[in-house]
């Protein structure tokens, strides 16, 4: 769910490039455990 939700913040950016930003967001996300219960 996390990547699907936040991917919309980077429209038109290739997945490889967006992945760098998504990884940084994931490292700082305080709700990691909650993303496992949210369906993609």
From TrEMBL:
This protein's GO CC annotations: nucleus
GO MF annotation, one: DNA binding, bending
Residue span, Alpha box domain: 1-40
A Gene Ontology biological process term: positive regulation of mating-type specific transcription, DNA-templated
Compartments, as annotated in UniProt: Nucleus
Taxonomic superkingdom: Eukaryota
InterPro entries recorded: MATalpha_HMGbox
Pfam families named in the record: MATalpha_HMGbox
Keywords annotated in UniProt: DNA-binding, Nucleus, Transcription, Transcription regulation
Sections of the chain in a coiled coil: none
Record has DNA-binding as a keyword: yes
Record flagged with keyword Transcription regulation: yes
Family membership noted in the UniProt record: Belongs to the MATALPHA1 family.
Name of the protein: Alpha box mating-type protein MAT1-1-1
């Amino acid at each position: 769910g996390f990547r699907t939700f936040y991917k919309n913040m980077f429209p038109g950016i290739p997945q490889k490039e967006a992945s760098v930003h998504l990884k940084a967001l994931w490292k700082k996300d305080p709700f990691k455990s909650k993303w496992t219960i949210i369906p993609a």
